[in-house]
Amino acid sequence: MNALLENSRPVIGTARPGETSLGARDHVNPATGCAQAKVLVCGADEIEAAAIAAIAGQRAWMGLGAEARRAALMKLADLVEAEGDTFATLAALECGNPVSTPANSLALSWIRYYAGWADKIEGGYSEPIGMAGFAYNRHEPYGVVGAIIPWNSPIVAIAMKVVPALAAGNAVILKPPTITPFVAIRIGELALEAGVPPGALCVVPGDAEAGEALIDHPAVGKVSFTGGGVVAKSVMHRCADQLKPLALELGGKSANIICADADLEKAAMMAAAWSLVPLAGQGCVLPTRVYAQAAIYDELVDRVRTIGASFRQGDPLDPETLIGPVINEAAAQRIIGVIERAKAESGGSVVLGGRRGQGDLAAGAYVEPTIFAGVAHDSHLAREEVFGPVLAIVRFGEDKDAVAMANDSRFGLGAYVHTRDLSRAHRMASELEAGGVGVNGMLPMAPNQPFGGYKTSGFGREGGRQGLEEFLQIKQVVVHL
């Protein structure tokens, strides 16, 4: 067992239970396929305890005052930064993200940004029509927020979802998946050390039972969920039964349009690096379907293949590794199934990869970085989210064809355009049906920019003032004179 993982226990108010209602299960290292720790699985009982603690914790959190809340969140950022190596190692062990991944620095930027909002929440003033008097509005927290995060990058998900809710004055019950509990638990421990009152951030690793109990609990005023569309439908139904507000950040199949006048060196590097490397392709806004204009198609395919072949895949604890394993064996088998289906029906051909990890990587959940060229736009590979290191390249003729194919998707999270023509870039950006468009580069996930989707990629925003307002209610106060 790894020493970093041995004492990980849920954080519920002042309680750190040594056992839970659903017992313990083995946690498997995705890089080795071997059990490395025991995970305590939370259920409805632990959610009930967390709700009780969160109600009291939220009152204490608000009682500190805005300046003290800002100071506590800034202190949390300092503590997370001081344990940067620990968080990188935990992420490598629990979800296979290489220690070379810059997730910690991204998360810190979000924590500090929203810490700064904690003492800047303000309302407005007006004179109501038809009466003598004045009115003002207050922006107030929901009370307790239920936050359900995915497994692909826990520290970033926590920074994007939990910290804004805390900055708005809410308590948060955080439910990480049982396959990635360790980063979240450590954040919960550091929050207490930073001065966040017990109960204001409860961490309850669990699966379906815990998630359903969290959504259904009457103390939870709002739910924020990041994950897949199938589970999101269930979450939405449960919230609808209670008329409970909900924010959803879901999947994507982001189109990456590369025009003939683009800087091909930069466009090819982005196409390869940002589709295959981050989180082993397990990211919702990665540019996993490339539309390359016919005049530069062959050259682009050659460049992307060469770049993709240079990426080192291996042990996520090795600082030279760029691509680690996918989350588990089931995911690896599913991704290989998608690859085999694409070989048969996509109309394209594999120009790189296409197999499970070989040699020393065979025991882990490794899938080779894989590139398909000549893919048909209407194929399963070009239209559905793979959530693995698989890139599809499609040929297009005119700009209107590329935009039409990009929009011909049920997803609408991100989109990308590469061109030297500024007018063309603005025109395409306005025509693309996506919550974010990157021109000549990647969407940076900057904390001061609103991030979220169109269509089935969700609703609500994380980032910027909009991300804070997701966790605030507006109350009007009218004074008659």
UniProtKB/TrEMBL annotation:
<dbReference type="InterPro" id="IPR016163">
    <property type="entry name" value="Ald_DH_C"/>
</dbReference>
<protein>
    <submittedName>
        <fullName>Aldehyde dehydrogenase (NAD+)</fullName>
        <ecNumber>1.2.1.3</ecNumber>
    </submittedName>
</protein>
<feature type="domain" description="Aldehyde dehydrogenase">
    <location>
        <begin position="25"/>
        <end position="477"/>
    </location>
</feature>
<dbReference type="InterPro" id="IPR015590">
    <property type="entry name" value="Aldehyde_DH_dom"/>
</dbReference>
<keyword id="KW-0560">Oxidoreductase</keyword>
<feature type="region of interest" description="Disordered">
    <location>
        <begin position="1"/>
        <end position="23"/>
    </location>
</feature>
<dbReference type="Pfam" id="PF00171">
    <property type="entry name" value="Aldedh"/>
</dbReference>
<dbReference type="GO" id="GO:0004029">
    <property type="term" value="F:aldehyde dehydrogenase (NAD+) activity"/>
</dbReference>
<dbReference type="InterPro" id="IPR016162">
    <property type="entry name" value="Ald_DH_N"/>
</dbReference>
<dbReference type="InterPro" id="IPR016161">
    <property type="entry name" value="Ald_DH/histidinol_DH"/>
</dbReference>
<dbReference type="InterPro" id="IPR029510">
    <property type="entry name" value="Ald_DH_CS_GLU"/>
</dbReference>
<feature type="active site">
    <location>
        <position position="249"/>
    </location>
</feature>
<comment type="similarity">
    <text>Belongs to the aldehyde dehydrogenase family.</text>
</comment>
